[in-house]
TrEMBL record:
Pfam families according to UniProt: CN_hydrolase (PF00795), LNT_N (PF20154)
Function: Catalyzes the phospholipid dependent N-acylation of the N-terminal cysteine of apolipoprotein, the last step in lipoprotein maturation.
Transmembrane segments: 23-54, 66-86, 93-117, 129-155, 167-190, 196-216, 488-506
UniProt-listed CDD domains: ALP_N-acyl_transferase (cd07571)
Keywords: Acyltransferase, Cell membrane, Lipoprotein, Membrane, Transferase, Transmembrane, Transmembrane helix
UniProt-recorded Gene Ontology molecular function terms: N-acyltransferase activity
NCBIfam families: lnt
Residues covered by the CN hydrolase domain: 234-474
Gene3D superfamilies assigned: Carbon-nitrogen hydrolase
InterPro entries: Apolipo_AcylTrfase, C-N_Hydrolase, C-N_Hydrolase_sf, LNT_N
Biological or metabolic pathway of the protein: Protein modification; lipoprotein biosynthesis (N-acyl transfer)
Organism: Natronospirillum operosum
Identification of the protein by name: Apolipoprotein N-acyltransferase
Keyword set includes Iron: no
Amino acid sequence: MVMALAAQINSVLKQQPIAARAALLFGGALVPLIFAPFNVWPLALALPVLFWWLTADQAPRRAFWHGWWFGAGFFGTGISWVYFSMRTVETPVWISLVLTVSFCLAMAFLFALQAGLPALLRRWLRVHWLLYPVLWLAFEGLRSTLFTGMPWLLWGTIGTDTVLRGWLPVGGVFLLGFLLLTCAAALWQWRPSVRMSAITPVLLLLLTWGGGAALLDRDYTESARETPLMVAAMQGNVDQSIKWQQRQIVPNLRLYQRLNSQHPEAELLVWPETAITAFPEDIPNHLHDLDTELRANGKGLIAGLPLWGEGSDYYNAMRGFGAARGDYAKQNLVPFGEYLPLQGLLQGLIAFFDLPMSGFSPGPAGQSPLQLELGEDSWQIGALICYEAAYPGLSRQQAADSHLLVVISNDAWFGRSLAPAQHLQITRARAIENQRDMVRATQNGISALINHHGQLLVRTPQFEVATVSGQLFLRTGQTPYQRWGNSLVWLLAMLTVLVALARGYWSK
């Protein structure tokens, strides 16, 4: 009876493209429910099934546009926070809306291509169902790199709060995402009357969940220091509308110094992204006094601030004070807040409408870790600023030679959207992949201390002045993901393609 009902629904949707596209738009819009703060993980299996079910056997043109409607829903709800990014830098409402909608609809063409490509390939070969999760993986990789990348809501990120997180130190979010998508594809092809079709989803689900459980909380790294590190992160919750005003520079500093004083036990203090709203050259005496006080007390501070680069370039950066030394300049900027995608093509639009972009330049690649000097020991600190935590590859580089990860952020970019909760989940995935303890300090929440298994030790509420403090461990060693990166998942994907091509050939 269930199969008959499904067949009837399928027939209606195939004959009514408008109904199919409405279903795909709605399904794409549900994607954020998979991730924090909702964590409805079964949708990670159900929504790809819906996508393939309604696109896979269509003519190329219809499959293309069906896929586009799913993408419009996906990005329309999943990355609509770019609107808040533009409003944060006082872009007019109507321009923010036009650019946000245009960006989301343009990104939707990635799903259009993903749906249209196999329909086109069917003209020359039999497209086996195993190719579909490989294509989804490939387009996630493309999305993560195209025009500096939009690696938001990668499928494998859902593993942070399930036994599936056991896979993350092995192959990262791309490996876990590929396993989930392969399970979904097997469910899509489930036929109870065909023996292999009936048991394949069961076997893949057992492998994915059982493997995750077997690998769960396995330690690939170890503590590099006998005693834990006492850390504290500050959340100033300074109103974004006044934060950058000239008269606010000193009050901002005093606020964070006052928060510092609440944690005399801390060896490392962390202030959020652009907590200091002036270039060091403009407030040398204040920063000298701050550095001197920290050195006298044997404490390190890592704080976000702007730094001058070469020529007229300036960076969104962090700097170490006291026992912490070194600088780091943000390499991946927030789209529509810190840079405009396709800025070269849209330069005239920026000038015509006088769009208030921040003007930050991306920092250079290959920057050294910050240093934390405690007694006779020197420890390396891997640095990430805000949106950079969404990039698994960059996080892997920053963690490779480091004992601790420090993430500073200004999630005011995201307003009261779902993005702050999603951002925290993404950040936790980076801690798990690299098995490094992590300090996360944000301007307005969510600040947190995270252990090397991605567990939240303590966190702040949003939109309040708050601090978090506790013990973290400096760690050494490499996870399989740190050692091999995405090599394992791409090898598995290539083997899957070979199997799919062979099965497609022999079943002609």
